[in-house]
């Protein structure tokens, strides 16, 4: 199968970890007889330096012509003084919006070898395998914001969703749950917010089409508690933008390190953007210290969700698990074992693959 992949390494450790993802994907193409065509584009600080724009039109064009997008990370102290409208992060926000990527998927898996890296107890996080599905292009982060009053002493943010925006994210979550353990937790604040009451109605309506998926509604505050107390009870969790932002960072601690967490941003067709949850980590950039596994696992998500290559995706995940089982870690993971660098970690995964 032939696929076009946009490669946006971005800044800091983005470049180092992207090298790993591309090497792994080339190996997958060879092993399984696929053709992947990679086209590199500039984004974030690198694009500001070269073009004065964190999302140059030519990058957007590359992405529009691709079947999927891989992104490293954007930003860093070098660009802390550029005007707010051309900050590196604007490049990524603009890309998500332009591409209409409304569903952000963050799987959280507790790897056996890494349970000691988590601040939570082994018996609590053992066997955790959950997926947070966060609405990414609506809600309070995109509603009207303003200052009012004679002295600008009133600040307003607006949380607004229309039925269509909720339906499409909820539909996505049901689809995911139906091919996983068939449990969906919908998170809201329906005891207070009108948008949450509408959210619940829509979840109940869509659930009729997925009779084999067990649905529960949970308030966001009790969800925050339960993620620490009994994370093993969750399968797919679907929620609006801000709740998802907060809960997914909370859930990330289960995995032990930011360097282990992949993500996908999807829309209704098969096009998606795949990136590690972590940022550009300027403190370790260029030192061969970055954990490349979040980026490599993001590439595995791309194989599965954009290209429907389940077997290939599982092969990459299995290679990662085997390297961890052999006791190899990068320095971010903080467990005892054989600590290796970024390049060496990529080599290990390549060997296993
Ligand atoms: P952003 O605003 O872009 O999300 P951030 O300020 O949240 O960035 P990160 O860049 O994600 O921060 O880094 C947070 C900390 O985690 C840093 O100390 C960094 O070195 C470490 N870190 C992040 N990603 C990795 C990785 N892949 N490997 C090793 N350490 C990492
Ligand atoms: Mg961050």
Automatic annotation (TrEMBL):
Q: What is the lineage of its organism?
A: Bacteria, Bacillati, Bacillota, Bacilli, Bacillales
Matching Gene3D superfamilies: Isopropylmalate Dehydrogenase
Q: Tell me the InterPro entries matching this sequence.
A: IsoCit/isopropylmalate_DH_CS, IsoPropMal-DH-like_dom, Isopropylmalate_DH
Q: Where in the cell is it found?
A: Cytoplasm
Specify the protein name: 3-isopropylmalate dehydrogenase
The EC number(s) this enzyme carries: 1.1.1.85
What range(s) does the Isopropylmalate dehydrogenase-like domain occupy?
4-349
This chain's source organism reads Scopulibacillus cellulosilyticus
Residues annotated as binding NAD(+): 76-89, 279-291
* Broad EC category: oxidoreductase
Point out the annotated site residues (description: Important for catalysis). 141, 189
> What cofactor(s) does the depicted protein rely on?
Mg(2+); Mn(2+)
Q: Which family does it belong to?
A: Belongs to the isocitrate and isopropylmalate dehydrogenases family. LeuB type 1 subfamily.
UniProt entry keywords in alphabetical sequence:
Amino-acid biosynthesis, Branched-chain amino acid biosynthesis, Cytoplasm, Leucine biosynthesis, Magnesium, Manganese, Metal-binding, NAD, Oxidoreductase
Family matches, as PROSITE patterns:
IDH_IMDH
Positions annotated to bind substrate: 96, 106, 134, 221
């Amino acid at each position: 199968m032939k696929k076009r992949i946009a490669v946006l390494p971005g800044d800091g450790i983005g470049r180092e970890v992207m090298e790993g993802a591309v090497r792994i994907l080339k190996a997958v193409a060879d092993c399984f007889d696929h053709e992947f065509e990679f086209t590199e584009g500039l984004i974030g600080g690198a694009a500001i330096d070269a073009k004065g724009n964190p999302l140059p039109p030519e990058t957007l064009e590359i992405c529009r012509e691709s079947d999927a997008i891989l992104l490293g990370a954007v930003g860093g102290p070098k660009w802390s003084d550029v005007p707010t409208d051309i900050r590196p992060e604007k490049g990524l926000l603009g890309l998500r919006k332009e591409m209409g990527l409304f569903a952000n998927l963050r799987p959280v898996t507790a790897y056996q070898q890494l349970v000691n890296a988590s601040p939570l107890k082994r018996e609590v996080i053992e066997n955790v395998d959950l997926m947070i599905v966060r609405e990414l292009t609506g809600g309070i982060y995109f509603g009207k914001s303003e200052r009012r009053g004679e002295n600008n002493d009133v600040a307003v943010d607006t949380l607004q969703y229309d039925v269509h925006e909720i339906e499409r994210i909820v539909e996505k979550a049901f689809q995911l749950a139906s091919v996983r353990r068939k449990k969906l937790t919908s998170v809201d604040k329906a005891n207070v917010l009108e948008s949450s009451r509408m959210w619940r109605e829509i979840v109940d309506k869509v659930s009729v089409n997925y009779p084999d998926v067990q649905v529960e509604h949970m308030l966001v505050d009790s969800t925050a508690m339960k993620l620490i107390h009994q994370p093993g009870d969750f399968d797919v969790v679907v929620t609006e933008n801000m709740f998802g932002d907060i809960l997914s960072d909370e859930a990330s601690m289960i995995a032990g390190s930011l360097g282990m967490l992949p993500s996908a941003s999807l829309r209704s067709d098969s096009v998606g953007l795949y990136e590690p949850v972590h940022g550009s980590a300027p403190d370790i950039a260029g030192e061969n210290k970055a954990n490349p596994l979040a980026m490599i696992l993001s590439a595995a998500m791309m194989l599965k969700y954009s290209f429907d290559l389940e077997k290939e995706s599982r092969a990459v995940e299995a290679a990662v698990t085997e390297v961890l089982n052999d006791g190899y870690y990068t320095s971010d993971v903080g467990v005892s074992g054989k600590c290796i660098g970024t390049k060496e970690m990529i080599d290990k995964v390549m060997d296993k693959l």
